[in-house]
Amino acid sequence: MDFLEKRFRLTEKKTDVKTELMAGFTTFMTMSYILAVNPQMLSQTGMDKGGVFTASVVASIIAMICMAFLANLPFGLAPGMGLNAFFTFTVVKTLGYTWQFALTAVFLEGIIFLILSLFKVREMIFDAIPINLKKAVSCGIGLFIALVGLVNSGIILKGEGTVLQLGNLLSRESVVFVVGLFIIAWLLAREIKGALMYGILASTILALILGVSKYQGGSPITLPPSLAPVAFQIQFDKIFTFDMFTVVFTFLFVDIFDTVGTLVGVSAKAGMLDEQGKLKEASPALLADAIGTTAGALLGTSTVTTFVESASGVAEGGRSGLTALSTAFFFFLSLFLFPVFGMIPAQATGPALVIVGLFMLSSIKEIDFYDYSEAIPAFITIIAMPFCYSIAEGISFGMISYVLIKLLAGKRKDISILMYILAIVFVLRIIWPLF
């Protein structure tokens, strides 16, 4: 106990070992849904579901150990929602690249973030992007993720004579989704910790009863699935291509907002920000997620990032890296439960995706809708993501429209040099096929 006290400065942070361990368990319960959702989502690219599960767990553990010992902060990390959707539905399914290409982009993103974190450039980039666009990106990804959940569950279908249409709500699959959605909504309304995971488990039990999912038999506790089908699949021959540049850039862009925004929001809730509203341990925290992302890409999973669900552990009193370390311990235990996570169908994870979309949409209230030079680019960013079924296109159109509208409105002072550069890059990305 003395080692833990000295290493994590528990007394200084006004906490104790018992509180930190309970906070770590709470954080695990609120973010463990990713262990069902991430393999489910990435397997749609052709990746081995079991391999992705093991890679996701191991990469998360590595990142949280770094968070514990480098930053001494109570934050959980895992493959991020939104980033895994971009990986699957934009890079692979829409743009037509292989999942190996997408993993290579994630690996490069991780290496770049390692460098940027060491020189504190990530904070500089984050500060250069207009606040309304930052909020809009989060909202747009939220709508996109919710749409993914509805489509994967069969609630929304490709239309016959229409763009989209409602699926059969009386089917067994739809019943599983609807029941799961209302269970999660009920638990959240009652402020029950782990609502998403409980909802997924309840939906899975119903899916087993209705025959939507089947248990393969055998013990629910087994050795972790092999990493061999997904690990070390980096395509080094594709690194220096324009296509790789655009994909890596978008990964960088989304992850910068996701991680820094989460760090600031959760740190504010925990009272960890200084008088200037800055987090003293921001650099090592960002370094931890860069290490997790790099390791995750090598192992075979999408971008690792800090989870906003860490706020649940903070609310339970977690204040030090011991919370992150205990969360990592519970992730380690989950390594041996793949048969349980593996039988969870898309109809059981779909409701969680819809609710995560709700969480991400909450920042829309902070967007300035009274200044149309800010509101229109933000709105374009938000609607382009679900309507184009692409996070990248939403970011691209949002950036371009922001610069153009500000110029036309005579508000050049609102445009940073970096914004000009980003807009030009995105325009080149659109017109490149013409040459």
TrEMBL record:
It is found in: Cell membrane. InterPro entries: Azg-like (IPR045018), Azg-like_bact_archaea (IPR026033), NCS2 (IPR006043). GO terms for cellular component: plasma membrane. GO terms for molecular function: purine nucleobase transmembrane transporter activity. Keywords: Cell membrane, Membrane, Transmembrane, Transmembrane helix, Transport. It is a multi-pass membrane protein. The chain crosses the membrane at residues 20-38, 50-77, 97-116, 136-157, 169-188, 195-215, 244-266, 286-308, 320-341, 348-364, 376-405, 417-434. Its main location: membrane. Belongs to the nucleobase:cation symporter-2 (NCS2) (TC 2.A.40) family. Azg-like subfamily. This is Putative xanthine/uracil permease family protein. It comes from Finegoldia magna (strain ATCC 29328 / DSM 20472 / WAL 2508) (Peptostreptococcus magnus).
